[in-house]
Write a structure and sequence with these properties.
11 strands, 11-stranded mixed sheet, Amidase signature (AS) enzymes, alpha/beta
Length: 420
């Protein structure tokens, strides 16, 4: 960690200055050392959690709800286990935007290249971890909001099985898809968190991995090559690798997930329309969601449940490997609706390989697996059946014990922190 070798006062000052330079911090907290199985680990939380006496901003221009009297269940569990919360970090407005852009606040800077997106909606969480400011960060994932910034910032993410971790006290976006999860530089830290939050016997190791080669082939050349390289690494380490087409499953889920996301998001936040707290693009999305017939929303939920029940992917495979994103990390302009260089397809593509995971309630671990032609990290996903979270994390930790992709320091970080 950046602050590891400094005394407490110097570390606090250094942390605040670095966070300011990277535009990732909403509010810092003075955390006292605590006892427990997570003692010694520091973290930041995406600013969508309730804590006593404080209202989260939810990525809006300012908090517009009264302070809470409760502490979110996941924060309570982490704090009770001795983890040090250093504050709350930036997110996109209502956790809706996959590139990390937020016209109401600020966009955290990607420490690999500040001209490129950092990914969202857990934007500040990923940047804080990539910069080494904290050991881990909490985010949320409704359609890829942990895994997309993990790819862009070169860190590791755990998107849990649906319903596995408590969501009480956290802002809902689309309750049928929402999960809370974590980002860290390495999977070992995530294994430690999982063993604390999910006390259970050590899982049987995953041995049979399917490589979704058809999905990889639809991605950029550098991404396809990186995922093929990881598949080769898995095979060389003694695992069974087979190719398994996955494109049809992604296609079957995609429109349904988008319908659920749009409809449930509007049901949760449509009341904010006209309040003056939203940017015009987000208001338009909410209005579209409110116009969706309830029958269409109900049908989308039911069809996703039917697909999940009929899923045979994991009868012969323990997990499936595919890219996080089909495109290399794009520049900010191509994902900014206000920019002349805006490319709507780029914004849509960011979550095109991640949405199906939320629609089916599956767990996923995203981890770095290479670098593109611009020297930016590339992420892969390991997706398993519900409840296989700890086994997926253990496999990711094994991979990282044999590779070095996750250990490289962001190339632009030193320059960004020169004045910090």
């Amino acid at each position: 960690m950046l602050v590891a070798a400094l005394d407490a006062q110097a570390a606090t000052t250094r942390f605040g200055e670095a966070a300011k330079r990277l535009r990732l911090l909403v509010e810092a907290e003075a955390a006292a050392p605590a006892q427990g199985v997570l003692a010694g680990l520091s973290y930041l939380a995406k600013d969508l959690f309730a804590t006593p006496g404080r209202a989260p901003t939810l990525g809006l221009a300012q908090a517009n709800s009264p302070p809470s009297q409760m502490k979110a269940a996941l924060l309570a569990a982490l704090d009770g286990a001795g983890a040090q919360r250093l504050g709350f970090c930036e997110m996109t407005a209502l956790a809706c935007e996959p590139s990390g852009g937020n016209p109401l606040r600020q966009r955290p800077l990607n420490p690999w290249d500040p001209s490129r997106i950092c990914g969202g909606s857990s934007s500040g969480s990923a940047v804080a971890v990539a910069a080494g400011l904290v050991d881990f960060a909490i985010g949320s994932d409704t359609a890829g909001s942990l895994r997309i910034p993990a790819h862009c910032c070169g860190v590791t993410a755990w998107k849990p099985s649906f319903g596995l971790l408590p969501v009480e006290g956290a802002m809902a976006l689309a309750p049928s898809l929402d999960v809370l999860g974590f980002l860290a530089r390495d999977a070992e830290t995530l294994v430690r968190l999982a063993r604390c939050l999910l006390p259970q016997p050590a899982p049987a190791p995953l041995r049979r991995i399917a490589h979704a080669a058809d999905v990889s082939a639809a991605a950029a050349t550098s991404i396809a090559a990186a995922c093929s390289g990881l598949a080769g690494q898995l095979k060389a380490s003694g695992l069974q690798l087979e190719e398994e087409p996955l494109g049809a499953l992604l296609q079957a889920c995609d429109r349904l997930v988008l319908d659920v996301l749009q409809g449930e998001m509007a049901a949760e936040h449509g009341w904010r329309i006209g309040s003056g707290t939203l940017d015009p693009t987000l208001e338009t999305r909410l209005r579209k969601g409110l116009s969706m017939p309830q029958e269409r929303l109900a049908e989308a939920r039911e069809r996703l449940q039917a697909i999940a029940r009929a899923l045979t992917l994991f009868r012969h495979h323990d997990a499936v490997l595919l890219p996080v994103m089909p495109i290399e990390t794009p520049d900010i302009a191509s994902c900014d609706p206000e920019s002349p260089g805006f490319a709507p397809r780029s914004l849509y593509a960011l979550s095109s390989f991640t949405r199906f995971v939320n629609g089916l309630g599956l767990p996923a671990v995203a981890l770095p697996c290479g670098f593109d032609g611009h020297g930016l990290p590339i992420g892969a996903q390991l997706v398993g059946p519900r409840g296989s979270d700890l086994a997926l994390l253990t496999l990711a930790a094994r991979i990282q014990g044999e590779t070095a992709w996750h250990g490289r320091e962001p190339s632009a970080l030193a320059g960004l922190l020169e004045a910090a």
